[in-house]
Amino acid sequence: MDRYVKVPIFPVTKYMSAQERNEIPAPMKPVSFGFGHDAVTVDAVLDCDRGVSRKVGGRGFRFTCRVSWKSYGKLRTKISVIWFDDFLQEWFVEVPEAKVPVDWDTATQIRDIDEHYEE
């Protein structure tokens, strides 16, 4: 069984129009973000609702998105879940520990997460 970790992302976001806000209960939506060495584009926000991350902790808005990125010259697409934690005011994705980007300091981040959610 995979252990999941919270990987912070720093997305480009945009504020929603009045029509989008009626459909999606959030003030803003992700447009693109960096993950490791890849630039990930959010093609569409399929669903958004308030929720709690049961795998890594946190609460806020849960965005189910169709994302795409280029890897080894091929365009790849998948459905991904992006979180906005409104308590911490940060964006993150849940990633199996084995698939965390190499340039991310896993040990430090896991220790910080564990300390924060022990309270």
Layout of SSEs?
Elements: E1 4-9, E2 12-15, H1 18-23, E3 28-35, E4 38-52, E5 59-71, E6 74-85, E7 90-96, H2 106-118
Antiparallel strand pairs: 1-7, 2-3, 3-4, 4-5, 5-6, 6-7
Distance between the termini: 26 Å
Quaternary arrangement of the chains shown?
A: single chain
Which secondary-structure class do the elements indicate?
alpha+beta
Number of strands: 7
What topology, given as strand order, has the largest sheet?
1-7-6-5-4-3-2
What portion of the residues fall into strands of 2 or more residues? over 45%
Helix count equals: 2
- Inertia-based shape: globular
Radius of gyration: 15 Å
Q: Largest sheet at a glance?
A: 7 strands, antiparallel
Query: Mean pLDDT across all residues, rounded?
Result: 81
Low-confidence stretches: none
Please write the string of helix (H) and strand (E) elements.
EEHEEEEEH
The helicity comes to 10-25%
Based on the model shown, name its key terms:
119 residues, 7-stranded antiparallel β-sheet, 55% strand
